[in-house]
């Protein structure tokens, strides 16, 4: 069983499938709301169909689904980079950050200057820029690397610099599109643990796309499994694990069984459509 109810009043830790019913969450402060959202590209490709989903302020939600099911499309619509073709999306974009798989640092700028870039574009004055960039570099564990050029940073450090640069915007909503997909496993695990701590500390709303089930479960309050294209919501899981999460937790039954549950759901949606 997924529920660990060893002592009478202990919470039932684990991962549980929940009904897909956005109305039940309407009472809480809403950060992102998709209502019957659909997206058909100009060439006729139907990428998303009837996405209705509400994300609460401060909630961390992961999206997982077959390749090409529309995850990136959904994130790009949320960010305003892409205009959807049906339904509505509500989100405060003033304090929004978006991190992609590629760290997209400018090679001719030192790391600190890269971290300052967003603020520079927004006209933040130099002393304030410097102060905030240093603060966020420290927050992501890059203190001491300010003067390095991107080529002298490891993949994980580049991603940390990219995170720091986004954090300088004080995002209330943070979108991630497979940010750790290109990194080796050890680096990824450390980044996940650090991102989890950052989320706890800063309290932003997280919209996180990943191919990794353990990554999704570790980071999230909720995991959304999407079906193959056109992307729909196949299933939702509530993750109820102690906070802060710990490395050791990943090897314990509520976590591993939760991963198995999400995996089964993902397998089911892939079998539905004959994709692998
Ligand atoms: P995911 O991120 O889940 O892998 P995407 O959102 O990138 O999926 O893509 C969803 C579907 O839309 C895919 O079939 C993809 O080929 C298609 N697609 C993405 N961008 C475009 C575009 N600009 N024009 C037409 N089709 C697109
Ligand atoms: Mg994608």
Description:
By secondary structure, the protein is of the alpha/beta class. It has two domains: 14-92 and 173-271, 3-Layer(aba) Sandwich (Rossmann fold), CATH 3.40.50.300; 104-171. The chain is 34% helix and 24% strand. It is built from seven helices and ten strands. It has helices at 71-79, 111-121, 126-139, 155-167, 185-202, 213-219, 253-273, and strands at residues 14-18, 30-40, 46-56, 60-64, 86-91, 96-99, 173-177, 205-209, 222-226, 233-240. Strands 1-10-9-4-8-7-6 form a seven-stranded mixed sheet, sandwiched between helices. It has a three-stranded antiparallel sheet with strand order 3-2-5, with helices on one face. Helix 5 links the parallel strand 7 (173-177) and strand 8 (205-209). The chain is globular, with a radius of gyration of 19 Å. The structure holds adenosine-5'-diphosphate (ADP) and magnesium ion. Residues 41, 43, 45, 47, 65, 67-73, 229 line the site of adenosine-5'-diphosphate.
The radius of gyration over CA amounts to: 19 Å
Bound compounds: adenosine-5'-diphosphate, magnesium ion
Q: Secondary-structure element sequence?
A: EEEEHEEHHHEHEHEEH
Spatial arrangement of strands, main beta sheet: 1-10-9-4-8-7-6
Please mark out the parts with pLDDT under 50 across 5 or more consecutive residues, or reply none: 1-7
Would you tell me the overall average pLDDT?
Answer: 91
Question: What is shown here, in short?
Answer:
By secondary structure, the chain is α/β, with parallel strands linked by helices. 34% of the residues lie in helices and 24% in strands. The N terminus is likely disordered.
């Amino acid at each position: 069983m997924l529920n660990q109810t060893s002592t009478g009043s202990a919470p039932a830790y684990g991962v549980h499938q929940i009904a897909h019913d956005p109305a039940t969450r309407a009472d809480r402060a809403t950060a992102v709301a998709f209502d019957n959202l659909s997206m058909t590209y100009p060439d006729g490709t139907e990428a998303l169909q009837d996405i209705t989903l509400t994300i609460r302020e401060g909630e961390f939600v992961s999206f997982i689904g077959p390749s090409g099911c529309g995850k990136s499309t959904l994130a790009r619509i949320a960010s305003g980079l892409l205009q959807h073709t049906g339904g509505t999306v509500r989100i405060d974009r003033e304090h929004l950050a978006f991190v992609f798989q590629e760290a997209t640092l400018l090679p001719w700028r030192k790391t600190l200057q890269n971290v300052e870039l967003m603020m520079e574009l927004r006209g933040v004055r130099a002393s304030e820029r410097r102060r905030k960039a240093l603060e966020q570099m420290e927050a992501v564990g890059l203190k001491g690397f300010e003067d390095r050029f991107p080529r002298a940073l490891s993949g994980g450090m580049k991603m940390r610099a990219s995170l720091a640069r986004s954090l300088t915007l004080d995002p209330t909503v943070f979108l991630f599109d497979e940010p750790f997909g290109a990194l080796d496993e050890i680096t990824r695990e450390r980044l996940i643990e650090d991102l989890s701590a950052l989320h706890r500390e800063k309290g932003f709303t997280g919209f996180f796309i990943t191919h990794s089930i353990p990554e999704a479960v570790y980071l999230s309050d909720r995991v959304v499994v999407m079906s193959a294209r056109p992307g729909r919501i196949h299933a939702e899981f509530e993750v109820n694990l102690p906070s802060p999460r710990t490395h050791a937790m990943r090897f314990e039954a509520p976590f591993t069984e939760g991963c198995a549950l999400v995996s089964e759901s993902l397998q089911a949606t892939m079998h539905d459509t004959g994709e692998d």
